[in-house]
Amino acid sequence: MHTIATRSAPGSKGQETAKRVRMAALKRFAGAGYAAVSMREIAADVGVRPGALYNHFPTKQDILKDLMLTHMADLLTAWDTARFPEAMDPLERFVRFHIRYHLERADEVFISYMELRNLEPDNFEIIEAERRRYEAILTSILHEGSAAGRYSVDDPKVATRAIIAMLTGIPTWYREGGHLGEHDVEDLYLTMVRKAVASETRNFQTETG
Predict the structure, then answer these.
(1) Global confidence as pTM
(2) What GO molecular function annotations does the UniProt record carry, in alphabetical order (predicted)?
């Protein structure tokens, strides 16, 4: 797994400033897009001189890479520590986890997908490797489920990308307080995913958790 390297000054003050840089950049990138944001603007939001940013991140590209790597590291850790009923179907577990996690992090999700195009080639490969680690979780679920007759999937890798793309799009339209609650969204999307991979010889029973 790749480490997230910055040049933060030692001590709590330096770490706190680096955290503020990340948060300011996150809001700026999500609001205006990476290409339209300058280091000067980020520095102004943090309340430091532009030159002070370089003590923490050598370039704006390093900030983008850091945000994306942090998002993927947190995502994978959250999956490893997630708690669901033991009897819950693995596919349901993944769908509910993915939706819950991503709905709470709309800015991180937006940047992690929309700003891939702005990563330099080497950084793109690093982020893609982490994304493949996460995709492999669902691919394994689909592969094992197909082998056991629970699902019917011709190509688990392609199905993985389709399912994740569908689920990850939810934060772009979902708004808290609307006519659908988060659990309603989970149930609706879980039904769609199940239908997409349903085996002709098996009827899914919805598990709640």
Answers:
(1) 0.84
(2) DNA-binding transcription factor activity; transcription cis-regulatory region binding
